[in-house]
Amino acid sequence: MIEHALHLLQHTYGYSHFRGQQQDIIDNALHGNDSLVLMPTGGGKSLCYQIPALVRPGLGIVVSPLIALMQDQVSALRQLGIAGAFLNSTLSAEEKRHLAQDLYQGNVDILYIAPERLVQPHTLQWLQQFPISLIAIDEAHCVAQWGHDFRADYLELHQLSTAFPGVPLMALTATATETTQQEIAQRLALRQPSVFLSSFDRPNIHYSVQPKNDARKQLIKFLAQHKKESGIVYCLSRKKVESTAKWLSEKGVKALPYHAGLPVNLRAHHLERFLKEDAIVMVATIAFGMGIDKPDVRFVCHLDLPKSMEAYYQETGRAGRDGEPAHAWMVYGLNDVVQLKQMVEQSEANEQHKQNERIKLDALLGWCEVTHCRRSALLAYFGETLPKACGNCDTCSTPPPTWDATVAAQKLLSCIYRTGQRFGSTYVIDVLRGKTSERTESLKHHELSTFGIGKDLNENQWRSILRQLMVLGYVSADAERYGALVLQEKARPLLRGMETLSLRQDLEEKLTKAASGTARVSWSDRQLWEALRTERKRLAQEHEVPPYQIFHDAVLMQMMENRPQSKIDMLQISGIGDKKYERYGEAFLGVVRQFAVSP
Prior knowledge:
alpha/beta; Rossmann fold; Arc Repressor Mutant, subunit A; 4 domains; seven-stranded parallel beta sheet; six-stranded parallel beta sheet; 17 strands; 44% helix
């Protein structure tokens, strides 16, 4: 059976060999065994369930959480000549009848379906009459209540193991700590699953984090380095999504808003533009992006702090799915911390869940403040060790200096104490820097010994010190009192001069453009590169599919570098199979031949 799988890989998908653990995962499923697959975004998860679903007799079922993802995956399968279909609320009664007829006639290879529909009793009973080859549960972390993207519908999927005895189950996700892995296996009732744990490392992504000083100014400076590239900008609130998208548009950026509060038709239109057009910047809440299979997202920006390391990893993983260089960029500040902590405290979750969320947020804050390799610290959170510094993150390219902040920290802690531990960061820093106002005078804080003792540092420097003191556990923000700063027991020995403290010295980041796919294009090849992209866009519009479903950027890059002159040459390019060549090969050969290099 593995020979059949390899034939499909080479002739249908256009790849010469399996990557990483793909072959072992496929072989395990072909033998009818359950599996839990953890593989980073862009690692080739879909092949792991699509190929065994095609090799084993019967219908492959894929549980998918989002309608947009189903449609995108099915469209991509059809481009490969595979009979894919989906069952969701977008289908009309007539379309459902046609689908049922195709299923009865055996004309569907792989069926995508949402969890809430699959677990309905009549749906389960209906599907039980068909031979099923495999059931894949994509985005399986959604089943974990301690995870970052919990969906109650996933809890009912435990029925699959009894409803379809003998059918291999495969749970797949890009993000899961060891605790979450155990929870996934238990809640899905996987039967002695083989666990396939790939490296969490995404070496093509450059990670950078900087303090939030003027977020919009910082963002536009970053985007100036990524013109003609597609990307995502995440914001915490719907209001901020809309205002940021509008502001970027006014600055000449092709930016679109996306959040759950927009009309369904408008969301669909914006998603279609993002998938089919080049250089679109989608400004969105985290509701956008799960499973969106757009391989050429060159950057993911966070204007607000995510909720956890898992959420950050999942969201940034949407960049560079094609393996080409990409950038994960984030700014954050104290207000983000206070807002997220307020959200945790005001939620209706039980105390245990709240405590878990606090721990996750603290872990993310600690990661933001690291002074060593950022990638190494990220992987360490997921239990993975990086042998050496990556050389592809901000802390590697520009190691942050540290300084003896003992006296400065004592000034700040003392000011918090003397103002009564009743005020937020802005007011405390104003007192430190000697900024008079009606409020300081009415409270007589201008008479305090700490008033003005921090004039030697600017506001951003004091915010950096305070942020790090919070991460290190010297200070906390009381969410119930609007972020009032409160000293912790750990602050006592520092205030008394019994210990010293070194902190990270924040510098204005010197923005260096992470190498992008187009950065590899030399000036002499630029015309061919643009011609290939133009032809791809023309074909995409003609066939009404996103450009990347014609060919990924990485495939065009190989065409540009190798300049194929025949069908044999073209089929040597990774990502071009028989069906893709039949549909598009000659058109691209024609483009390449126009730019033949003289001997």
